[in-house]
């Protein structure tokens, strides 16, 4: 009887994780390299450790970029972000390190990383870091008429 219980517990408590954190950022070719288009991603569960106390620091990371020839693959980005969970970093350091790694992997026309760290000691911290490819200029902004919610219904 105990042998069967032990085998059952071993089976359900020791399966290998299907994925593990990694610093490898995978990429794929931009499907429309002739056009500037904006990619917006939000990472609401970013975690690293405070290098002073070892306590966890939580943040929402917001990544906005205009790709050139290469885009970042989402699963690899998730595993990359996970890799910081057990590392100690100051907010300013980790934000710039992530931006540097993403720029190195994708060589975008433009990239902005906004890190919105949750309160720590009564202080919220936001860090914004940007990269702009040399010589790249954005197209002029086009402001379109704003429509109210449900404006297409008549009544």
Describe what this molecule looks like in 3D:
With 155 residues, the chain is an alpha+beta fold. The model has no long low-confidence stretch (mean pLDDT 89). The longest helix has 16 residues, at 91-106. The chain starts with a helix and ends in a 23-residue tail after the last strand. It has a domain at 39-132: 2-Layer Sandwich (GTP Cyclohydrolase I, domain 2). 24% of the residues lie in helices and 32% in strands.
CATH architecture of the domain at 39-132: 2-Layer Sandwich
Examine the coordinates and then state which fold CATH places here, giving the name of the CATH topology of the domain at 39-132.
GTP Cyclohydrolase I, domain 2
Order of helices and strands: HEEEEHHEE
| Structural class computed from helices and strand pairing | alpha+beta
**Biggest beta-sheet profile:** 4 strands, antiparallel
Q: Could you say which overall geometry the principal axes of the C-alpha atoms support?
A: globular
Classified in CATH, the superfamily of the domain at 39-132 is GTP cyclohydrolase I, C-terminal domain/NADPH-dependent 7-cyano-7-deazaguanine reductase, N-terminal domain
What is the helical fraction, as a range of percent? Answer: 10-25%
Number of strands: 6
What separation lies between the terminal Cα atoms?
A: 72 Å
Using only CA atoms, what is the Rg?
21 Å
What ranges have pLDDT less than 50 throughout 5 or more consecutive residues? none
| Residues in β-strands, percent | 25-35%
Averaged pLDDT, please?
89
């Amino acid at each position: 009887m105990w042998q069967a219980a032990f085998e059952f517990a071993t089976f359900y408590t020791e399966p290998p994780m299907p994925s593990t954190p990694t610093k490898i950022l995978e990429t794929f070719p931009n499907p429309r390299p002739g056009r500037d288009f904006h990619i917006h991603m939000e990472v609401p569960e970013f975690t690293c450790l405070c290098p002073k106390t070892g306590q966890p620091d939580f943040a929402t990371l917001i990544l906005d970029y205009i790709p050139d020839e290469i885009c970042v693959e989402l699963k690899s980005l998730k595993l990359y972000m996970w890799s910081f969970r057990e590392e100690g970093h100051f907010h300013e350091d980790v934000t710039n390190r992530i931006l540097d790694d993403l720029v190195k992997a994708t060589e975008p026309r433009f990239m902005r990383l906004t890190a919105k760290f949750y309160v720590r000691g009564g202080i919220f911290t936001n860090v914004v870091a940007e990269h702009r490819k040399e010589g790249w200029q954005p197209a002029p902004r086009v402001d379109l008429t704003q429509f109210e919610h449900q404006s297409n219904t008549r009544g």
